[in-house]
Each structure stands twice: as structure tokens, then as C-alpha cells.
Amino acid sequence: MRLKNISLALRQRTGLLPIALAGSALMIACGTAAQPVDSKPVATTAPLVSSALSDTAQASNPVPVSITPTLQSPTETADTSSRQETPASTTPKRGRVVIPEGEFPLVDTSLHSVPLSDILFDTFGGIPRSLPLDRAKDDRILSLRDAIAPILHADYGPPNALSWLRDDSLILGYVSGKDAYAYPINILNMHEIVNDVFNGVPVLITYCPLCFSGVVYHRELDGKFLTFGNTSALYQSDLVMYDHQTGSYWFQVGGEAVVGELTGSHLSLLPSTTMAWGEWKRLYPQTQLLTGMAGSPNRFNSGRYSRGFGGDYQGRINDEKFIFPVDEKKLDSRLSAGEIVLTVEVGGKVTAFPLDIIGDGVVNHQVDTEPVAVFIKASGGAVGAFSRVVDGKTLIFEYKQDSQDFVDQETSIVWDAAGRATGGPMSGVQLKRLNTRRSFWFSIAIALP
Asked: Where are the domains of the chain?
């Protein structure tokens, strides 16, 4: 993956100052984009932002650092219609996850796109503390497989099923058709991987505690369904998964196979969001909540799952004190390593939005050819990315500080944080959800250079 262009929008007290770079070209504009000198065009419009700092679309507040690489394979798989149905109370349409019988194959280390020495097994207090793949013997590799147990057959319950879950607890949320699913981060801290099937779509829910990365993928590749386990290894301090079908190793944030038969393959990204449980429950009162695994449907109601990461872990990452080694040459200093960003991916192009810098508000932007709106409610941990096109018309959104509402300028309709119109002639209309991932900046910069 090669970086095609970079655009930065920085806060200035006098207004919005977008800067776009393409090689040595520089573009500076206020309000609208200018063409760079001696280079191909790198932007068409300046991002429009509305936040708690201002009620206007051209607000004096930060806009995303945005990266726009061309991926080796497009991952846009979201519904292409401009409207989507709103989840309601229905019987969830889940399918069966089929796990291959017999022993899973070992990875073929003769095929790899990253140095084998950079894949480090966590020995969980053993000696040595970490073990490079190029020095690991087969029996050790097998003994460490799924030491962090993936969820192969999930059980779900109603919103009140986990007594320890608080409104300010974070969850990873996924919507399939009319059904909504919530995965508490405290559970994902200890299991990291969930395989499931929703409405015929084989889904992979993934989370790495070391880079705060919640990403949902489509498990189908070249017409075949893959299922995933945990290698107990890390690459650049990020989770490394393996598929049961070929044993190939997959870099979690990038969704890319980096060792084995499938090296160079990419999983398709799906829309998801990470937000506070109270906000998700308000948006989706009939949500299904992850509660256990096959044979133990209430396993996650145990108090051991109520504990999260202690201390100022984000501050540690901002100081670049990583738990496992990270190549400093791969870091990107435009943002602090621990800045939480949301990436939006359309047509093989990716833009990263720094959530803490933006704060409460909405960003109107364009990714590839898609007009995009990113809704952010920092207080509730809510964030979503949507197409701004409805019935062929492109809307511009703003954030009303007094009412804490998202409103489009064209119709003055109020939209909730899930991208649904709450009244007027478009009541119930759902903006098209866009493919997203949320993570610390350092892992995004490495996965999507």
C-alpha cells in the first residue's frame, strides 16, 4: 500500500486552514480547496465541520488528519443504497459457524510479506517473554494457539443480561439488517475474536486491547468462508489471527494476511462503531448483547469480566511506551501514537478522523467520490460515519450545541447518532453506514501507510 496523498486540516483562530500534500506539492486554502503546484489534483473541497465550538459548517475547530492510500484490494462492502432500514425488535437471523474438523494446518512460513522476526509470540510470563516466529518450533506454536480463547459460537441475551455492564462501559456495536449486536470491550479484552453469521453474512468481530482497535470484517474470501483463532502473537504490538482453513497469519487492524498461503489477501471491512453502552442501548433498545459461548450461555456475567484496563494506558502509548516492539520508522508523527481515530473507507481510499481533537460535532467531508458525514458525541462515546447522499441529494450536516442534535441544513431534520432521521417527511430513514475501524493512531499508520 502506497500513500497517494495526505491532507491535513488544522485549527486556526482565523478559520479553517486545510493543507494537502502530494509529494513536494503544497496546497493552502481557506474555505475552498486550491490546486497544488506541479502536481495532480489532490482534493476537490475543503472539509466542512460543525461542532460544539460553532453552529456553522465552516467552524473554527479541528478537522481530521486524513490519509488516502490506495489499497491492494478494495474493501467497500456496505449497502450502496442511500437509505437503509432501521433495526427493530425482530428474531435475530443468525446462522451456524462451521469449524473445520480435525487439526488446523500450521502456517507456511516460506510465504510472508513481513519479516518473520517481527511476529512475536506472547509466552504469557514464560521464558523468553516473547518469541519470534522464525525461532519458534512447531510444538511451541501449537501450544500457544488460542491461549486467548476466541469465541467460535457466541450466545446473546437481552440488554439487561450482564449485571456488571454500566452505561459508561464501552461496547463494539454492529448492525445487520434489522438486528443490532453489542460486544462489551471488557469481554473482547479477554477473547479478542468472535466468529458469527448474521443474515447469511459470515462476520468476524475483532479487538486488540494493545491498540484499542475494534474492527469488523466479512469472513468470506474468494468464495470460501474462513474461521479464525488467535495465534497469541503480535505484529507491531497488534493482534495476529490465524485462519483454520490454511493456517495463514492475519494482521488484525489491516485485515491482511502477512504469513502463509494467503499472504497478501485482505478481508473486506464492514461498518461498526465503538461507543458507550448507555448510548448504544438508547439508540438500539432491542439490541442483542454478547453474554456467553456455546455450552455456557451466561459465562460473561461473571465479575471477572467487569474489570477493564487500569491506569493511563493511552498516555503510555502517547509516550510511545508500547507493550510489544513497534518499528519507530513506521510511526507517523502527524498525531500522537495514542490518538484515537476513526477511519472511513470508500472505494479503496481511507480517511482518518482524530476523535478527541474534533470533540462533539459533525465533519462533512468526501472520501473518494462519496460525500461523508462523521457524527461524534464525545460525552457518550458515540461516533458513526455515513453517506451524505439521500435520494440523490447531498446533505450538509451541522451540530447544534444547545440541543446536542445533528441537523441537516437542507431540511432542518434532526438525525440521531445512528444516522436516522427522527422526524419530518424522512422520519425513520437511515443514512447509509460506511465501512469504519477505530484504533490508536500508531496502528492505523502502520496498517495503512
From this structure: 2-84+332-439, 116-305
Neighbours of 113 (CB within 10 A): 11
pTM of the predicted model over 0.70: yes
Q: Look up residue 252 and give its three cell numbers.
A: 488484525
Q: What is the DSSP string of 238-279?
A: EEEEEETTT--EEETTTTEEEESTTTT-BPEE---EEEEHHH
Burial of 5 (0-12, 13-18, 19+ CB in 10 A): buried
**H/E run at residue 282:** helix 277-283
Q: Is 124 exposed, middle or buried (0-12, 13-18, 19+ CB in 10 A)?
A: exposed
Query: 71-82 burial, b for 16+ CB within 10 Å, e for fewer?
Result: beebbbbbeeeb
For the chain, what's the residue count? 449
**At residue 301, what are phi and psi to the nearest 5 degrees?**
-80, 0
Q: Is residue 120 scored above 50 in pLDDT?
A: yes
Beta bridge partners of 18: 9
Please confirm whether the linkage preceding 92 is cis (ω < 30° from 0). Answer: no
Closest by CA position to 134, among listed 115, 157, 152:
115
pLDDT tens for residues 280-301?
A: 999 999 999 999 998 999 999 9
Any idea what DSSP says for residue 324?
S
Give the CA radius of gyration of the chain.
21
DSSP state of 300: G
Q: Is 329 left (phi over 0), alpha (psi -120 to 50) or beta?
A: alpha
Please give the C-alpha separations between residue 157 and each of 180, 291, 298, 315, in angstroms, as whole numbers. 12, 6, 9, 35
What cell does 97 get? 459457524
Most confident listed range (2-11, 65-74, 86-95, 310-319): 310-319
